[in-house]
Automatic annotation (TrEMBL):
<protein>
    <submittedName>
        <fullName>Allene oxide synthase, chloroplastic</fullName>
    </submittedName>
</protein>
Length: 500
């Protein structure tokens, strides 16, 4: 795997997190749904247009990928239309995506964005990355849970199976995480003794694959030498080939536009290696596969392909994007944040073995995780299609949405909503502490729903949202049990000082 492969993983629009349950590991509650539009808000025609057929989508595509980049693309249109809701086009487009409709309605403030999670007015069928859907051959001709709408009976079966997977995995989750973190940081320290800077991306992905594979599928990579050596690189390529038309890897233009954004890549490029992963889970994760069949009525193929998607797309992909951002936030900080984190860990946890319960007491650690998710959400884009005609409200207007129209939210922009977050462009480590900070969690949407929501079979919230945040908090706590300080970036570690 080369550096461009890592760039593709870090840039991709994927659903992070793996199936799990809520903070109490219960899925009995629904997500909060948007309040009805206020009668005091004016009804406004949605500004913006899709432009001339063919030319409009191409122009927006070039702005999005080349001339402006996603952040400027959305900011300029907000300024132009004086609205956080407007019509535009989203890639992929022409020449070889003739069956893909790029027309979307952008929703870019917290209030309008929240409609994407109201399953009474929107649906999520085949909208994971917009109107474009990678070939189902990437998942063995199976439409996995991420592409199913809540109205489809199979969704409830797979979602409940996924929730059950994680509940059962709690027996080994922490043990596997901590043992693999030991291996990861032992490796980093060894390499640091020989060099001034060590890239941790590949070792981190190896750590993630080993710990997640055993925790989620019950399959131990050590039982298959090829998978143990190459499983994480197989997932990198499998992920990248599916989402290449929708992401930028910042290579030389116009080569990126010509070769990466103009056509969908065929599944046969990874088919052989994917089959090896399938056989690995089929053999080594036999107990989990049988549970999907006997307890949830899934076929063996449905069970294994959904397990692989949860492992590869949701969990491995999500953590591969998020954790480097979190490490960079801490390791590059010059404000004294590390000392505050270290003091909290030493005071509340000490040298005791970490657990989910123990990290729940680390308010600052959790706030840093939440704030990193706010500014650098691993899922940049969210989509949903109007299930029926309805009225959508932003902070200052109401808009008529017609059945079948595709809504698109760019989370890095939404999470900088100045009407919700004070000084939204600034990283504030303590933003989510205290009562006021707890209230803000209702607007933290990184997980396909608010952090205060609860994953369930009748919504599309990432079932693993709490496992993700608690796991990230545990990693931070582990670092400050092991080190006094750590210095580095989103890709490398340059120095560590052992704990005293």
């Amino acid at each position: 795997m080369n550096s461009s492969s890592v760039a593709m993983i870090k840039s991709m629009s994927i659903s992070p997190g793996m199936p799990s349950s809520s903070s109490s590991f219960s899925s009995s509650q629904s997500l909060s749904t948007p309040s009805p539009p206020s009668t005091s808000l004016p009804l406004r025609t949605i500004p913006g247009s899709y432009g001339w057929p063919l030319l409009g989508p191409i122009s927006d595509r070039l702005d999005y990928f080349w001339f402006q980049g996603p952040e400027t693309f959305f900011k300029k249109r907000i300024e132009k239309h004086k609205s956080t809701v407007f019509r535009t086009n989203m890639p992929p487009t022409w020449p070889f995506f003739l069956g893909v409709n790029p027309n979307v309605i952008a929703v870019l403030d917290c209030k309008s964005f929240s409609h994407l999670f109201d399953m009474e007015v929107v649906e999520k069928k085949n909208t994971l990355i917009g109107d474009f859907m990678p070939s189902v051959k990437f998942t063995g001709d199976t439409r996995v849970c991420a592409y199913l709408d809540t109205s489809e009976p199979l969704h409830a079966q797979v979602k409940n199976f996924a929730i059950d997977i994680l509940k059962r995995s709690s027996k080994v989750w922490v043990t596997e995480l901590l043992s693999n973190l030991d291996i990861l940081f032992d490796t980093i320290e060894t390499k640091l003794s020989q060099s001034d800077s060590v890239s941790y991306l590949f070792p981190l992905q190896k750590c993630l694959f080993d710990f997640l594979s055993k925790s989620i599928t019950g399959a131990d990579p050590k039982m298959d030498p090829h998978i143990a050596e190459s499983g994480h690189t197989i997932l990198d390529r499998w992920l990248a080939l599916q989402i290449l038309p929708t992401v930028s890897i910042r290579v030389l233009q116009p080569l990126e536009e010509i070769f990466l954004h103009s056509f969908a890549y065929p599944s046969f490029l990874i088919g052989g290696d994917y089959k090896k992963l399938y056989k690995f889970v089929e053999k080594e994760g036999k107990e989990m596969v049988e549970r999907g069949q006997t307890e949830y009525g899934l076929s063996k193929e449905e069970t294994i392909h959904n397990l692989l998607f949860v492992l590869g797309f949701n969990a491995f992909g999500g953590f591969s994007v998020f954790l480097p951002s979190l490490i960079n936030t801490i390791a590059s900080d010059k404000t004294g944040l590390q000392q505050k984190l270290r003091n909290e860990v030493k005071e509340k946890v000490g040298s005791s073995r970490l657990s989910f319960d123990s990290v729940k007491s680390l308010e600052l650690v959790q706030s840093v995780v939440y704030e990193t998710l706010r500014l650098n959400p691993p899922v940049p884009l969210q989509y949903a299609r109007a299930r029926r005609d309805f009225q959508l409200s932003s902070h200052d207007s109401v808009f008529e949405i017609k059945k079948g129209e595709l809504l698109c939210g760019y989370q890095p922009q939404v999470m900088r909503d100045p009407k919700v977050f004070d000084d939204p462009e600034t990283f504030k480590a303590e933003r989510f502490t205290g009562e006021k900070g707890s209230d803000l969690l209702s607007y933290l949407y990184w997980s396909n729903g608010p952090q205060t929501g609860s994953p369930a079979e009748f919504n599309k919230q990432c079932a693993g949202k709490d496992y993700v945040t608690l796991t990230a908090s545990m990693i931070v706590a582990y670092v400050f049990q092991r080190y006094e300080s750590i210095t580095g970036t989103s890709s490398s570690i340059t120095a560590v000082e052992k704990a005293k």
